[in-house]
Amino acid sequence: MAAHQFILNGQTVTVEAPGDLPLLWVLRDVLGVTGPKYGCGVGVCGACTSHLDGESFRPCLQPVASVAGREVLTIEGLGGEGLHPVQEAWIAEDVAQCGFCQPGQIMAAVALLRKNPHPSDADIDAAMSDNVCRCGTYVRIRAAIQRAALLLRSGAGIRGGWTR
């Protein structure tokens, strides 16, 4: 066991854990951050998708020791005091069915829109292809990402704190 310090959703945290423990277990079991879901544990489903230093990543594959001093953002920290425009679009498009994959889907969508504020449907399909939705809401996911892109470009629906 060792102490590992990193920034989680804007706050510095220190945890005691084996360095090779996947970050997903530290987030969920040690810190009580349950937005990132355990789906497969091998990085293929996308249910745990979060951001590491602003880039999309899978905490189920990342050992806690590797995030020392780095910034981890989960869905819990995404909107600050309000909803992020992607979350607003998800609600407006009624995307979620069972909801299990949605935190990972939303975090992947935010990463996409940060890199590409004008995505085509093909861009969205390619960027989201590694995030699995068991309910098959892919058409609504695409519509929500297009809506969020418009919100972000226009500044409509923006609340303070979502700049992450």
TrEMBL record:
Coiled coil: none annotated. PROSITE patterns: 2FE2S_FER_1 (PS00197), 2FE2S_FER_2 (PS51085). Pfam families: Fer2, Fer2_2. The keyword Mitochondrion does not apply. CDD domains: fer2. It comes from the Bacteria. InterPro entries: 2Fe-2S-bd (IPR002888), 2Fe-2S-bd_dom_sf (IPR036884), 2Fe-2S_ferredoxin-like_sf (IPR036010), 2Fe-2S_ferredoxin-type (IPR001041), 2Fe2S_fd_BS (IPR006058), Beta-grasp_dom_sf (IPR012675), Diverse_Oxidoreductases (IPR051452). Residues 2-78 form the 2Fe-2S ferredoxin-type domain. Keywords: 2Fe-2S, Iron, Iron-sulfur, Metal-binding, Oxidoreductase. The keyword Metal-binding applies. GO terms for molecular function: 2 iron, 2 sulfur cluster binding; metal ion binding; oxidoreductase activity. PANTHER family: BLR6218 PROTEIN, OXIDOREDUCTASE WITH IRON-SULFUR SUBUNIT. This is (2Fe-2S)-binding protein. The lineage of its organism: Bacteria, Pseudomonadati, Myxococcota, Myxococcia, Myxococcales.
